[in-house]
Amino acid sequence: MIESKPARDSEEFAGQVRGMFDRIAGVYDLMNSAMTAGMHHRWRDRAADRAELSPGDVALDVACGTGDMTLRLQRRVGSDGHVIGSDFSERMLDLAREKGASRASSGLGGTPIYEWGDALELTYDDDAFDAVTVGFGVRNFADLDRGLAEMNRVLKPGGRMVILEITQPQRPPLSTFFSLWFDRLVPLLGNVAGDAEAYSYLPESVKRFPPPEDLAEKMERAGLTGIRWTILAGGIIAIHSGVKPGS
């Protein structure tokens, strides 16, 4: 289970991760598709559906990266709704804004707002959003408990938190395949992408991340109720959701 880091260590970790994502932003989407055989699009759709948004709602996508989840949320709230994508990598945000502009020019409805933000110190008011999501980013939080508490804080009572993340299967043969893929092949792909360090970090971050039942406990301690999770891709992907108490 991940433990909270001292403040100085958290700041150093966050700086390292931010620099890494700035470096790989240009190949991020391509690498996601290569590593998942394109399945990450379907997983994001499932996670966006779990947010249970309605037209006109307001949502926040934390650690939004290049904006794939953010755009899915925007489609669900429609032109009358509002979605903010927040990330601490300016290079990722630049690419997300390009996607948003392309969507707007295609006449596909509303366009998300993309803003720089620290997931551990969200600048939004309490009880501001109908849903808060994070797709493949929560394992990069320097302090997971603090990040969950912040996301819960900005949720409206009755609002829903959704977390899409890689998880480590525990039983063979999938655990064996997972180890082969993430420990050996993903770093090789990183060499091709020009950043072996970044794609060596990926399997390490998954190993450090809590298993599904432990993440559910952390969400409960953050103040959420009705927590449930769905395991996809034979045990490699988990979607967690919980509701902030109140009406």
Descriptive account of the structure:
- It is a single chain.
- The protein is α/β, with parallel strands linked by helices and 247 residues long.
- The chain has a single domain (7-24, 38-166, 211-243), classed as Rossmann fold (3-Layer(aba) Sandwich).
- The protein is 49% helix and 20% strand.
- A seven-stranded mixed beta sheet has the order 3-2-1-4-5-7-6, sandwiched between helices.
- The longest helix has 30 residues, at 7-36.
- The protein is globular and about 45 Å long.
- The model is unreliable at 1-8 (pLDDT under 50).
Terminus-to-terminus distance:
32 Å
Oligomer: single chain
Helix/strand class:
alpha/beta
SSE pattern: HHEHEHEEHEHHHEE
CATH architecture: 3-Layer(aba) Sandwich
Averaged pLDDT: 87
Task: Report the CATH C-level class.
Answer: Alpha Beta
Please count the helical segments: 8
Number of domains: 1
**Rg measurement, Å:** 17 Å
Helix content: 40-55%
Shape assignment: globular
- Report strand order across the widest sheet: 3-2-1-4-5-7-6
Task: Write a concise keyword list for the protein shown above.
globular, 7-stranded mixed beta sheet, 8 helices, disordered N terminus, alpha/beta, 247 residues, Rossmann fold, 49% helix
How are the secondary structure elements laid out?
Elements lengths: L6 H30 L3 H11 L7 E5 L5 H10 L4 E6 L2 H16 L7 E4 L12 E7 L8 H11 E12 L7 H20 L2 H13 L3 H10 L3 E8 L4 E7 L4
Parallel strand pairs: 1-2, 1-4, 2-3, 4-5
Antiparallel strand pairs: 5-7, 6-7
Helix pairs in contact: 1-4, 1-6, 2-3, 6-7
